[in-house]
Specification:
Layout (H helix, E strand, L loop, with lengths): L1 E3 L11 E4 L2 E4 L4 H14 L4 E2 L7 H4 L4 H16 L26 H7 L12 H20 L4 E4 L21 H11 L5 E5 L6 H7 L5 E8 L24 E6 L5 H18 L3 E6 L16 H12 L5 E5 L5 H16 L1
Parallel strand pairs: 1-4, 1-5, 5-10, 6-7, 6-9, 7-8, 9-10
Antiparallel strand pairs: 2-3
The structure holds N-[3-({4-[(3-aminopropyl)amino]butyl}amino)propyl]acetamide and zinc ion.
Zinc ion (ZN) binds next to loops.
Length: 343
């Protein structure tokens, strides 16, 4: 199995985030990708290659043009506004009852317009890193198209919280969604996205909510008590043509393999009924018992089980990296998931 990664993805390097009501050290840092890369090298799964370059077209199939231009131009606008902070946070949002139909001219208005949290600071190189991360997922999708049975897109920054026109949850471009859409546009009939990150994949769900060609399933902490709080409930089943193609498995804090594994089993049976041509796994390591921001209790060997169950689906599979914040165990757990798939 090949791995795709670019050092450009390390250029987004926040040092702090607003979380739990205060300014804390950033969790989504370049060292995450570096430690995973180191363990992938040691595991010798196969070649590690840089992403190919893509035009913006594949990204614009998923994200709105004004949003992409905002991300792309952000640093220039920030400097033109005479601002000097190196890490930038939104602080006001157009929530219930406020207007969404006029994009503000002022940079602070734009920041809130295109975001849903204050946990995802932007800097001078955020766009470069996010674009590169999306190209990593696209290159992985191309490997699957060229006949590879599996590939690992070592994406960072992650993507599953990003909506068509919103960033948040450390995510700017929805890498898994961009890969899924690319596969569809290259003639793949049906794609499943299975999201095993601790947090609900709100962005991915929203992007494909009214579609029957991309099935979405997410196993995550109950949004009643966990980020992203406002999406990810069990009764979100899809809309219009997409009705019945969205499946959420919200689980309580403290969940360990017994209940998590049951949800995975149910999800896999639902995937088999859909009979996808390609499976994309939004692979988060944050269900791990010692993850610093999460409250599930999966153990290292449980990640092997996840990989092995996914392999039983017998489908070409693109793994796309999402979250996971215990730097020390991130590389081990990630390679366990992939070797569970391969063995
Ligand atoms: C991709 C991904 O995993 N994004 C997650 C973003 C989560 N940001 C909010 C973190 C809130 C942490 N609350 C921890 C409480 C325990 N101290
Ligand atoms: Zn997560």
């Amino acid at each position: 199995m090949k791995t795709i990664f670019s050092p450009d993805q390390l250029l987004h390097a926040p040092t702090k985030e607003i979380s739990d009501g205060k300014l804390v050290a950033a969790h989504e840092v370049p060292a995450r990708a570096e430690i995973i890369l180191e363990h992938i090298r040691k595991a010798q799964f196969g070649e590690i290659q840089p992403p190919k370059e893509f035009t913006l077209n594949a990204i614009l199939k998923v994200h709105d043009t004004d949003y992409v231009h905002f991300l792309q131009d952000f640093w220039k606008l920030w400097q033109e506004a005479g601002r000097t902070e190196e890490e930038v946070f939104p602080f006001v949002w157009p929530v219930h009852g406020l207007r969404h139909d006029i994009v503000p001219d002022h940079i602070d208005g734009k920041l809130g317009f295109y975001s849903f949290d204050a946990g995802s600071p932007m800097g001078a190189h955020t766009w470069t890193a996010a674009r590169s991360s999306a190209e990593t997922a696209l290159t992985g999708a191309d490997l699957i198209l060229s006949g590879e049975g599996a590939a690992f897109a070592l994406c960072r920054p992650p993507g599953h919280h990003a909506h068509r026109r919103l960033y948040g949850g450390y995510c700017f471009l929805n890498n898994a969604a961009i890969a899924a859409q690319h596969l569809r546009d290259q003639g793949v009939g049906k794609v499943t996205i299975l999201d095993v990150d601790y947090h609900h994949g709100n962005g991915t769900q929203a992007i494909f909510y009214d579609r029957a060609d991309v099935q979405f399933l997410s196993i995550h902490a109950d949004p009643k008590v966990e980020f992203p709080y406002y999406l990810g409930h069990a009764n979100e089943r899809g809309l219009k043509e997409g009705a019945g193609y969205n499946h959420n498995y919200p689980l309580p804090h403290g969940t360990s393999w017994d209940k998590w594994g049951e949800a995975l089993e149910d999800a896999c049976r639902t995937i088999m009924k859909f009979a996808p041509d390609v499976v994309i796994v939004s692979l988060g390591m944050d269900p791990y018992e010692n993850d610093p921001i999460s409250q599930f209790r999966l153990k290292t060997d449980d990640f092997t089980r996840i990989g092995a169950r996914i392999a039983q689906l017998g489908c070409p599979t693109l793994f796309v990296m999402e979250g996971g914040y215990l730097i020390g165990e991130l590389g081990v757990n990630c390679t366990k998931a992939l070797s569970g798939y391969l063995d």
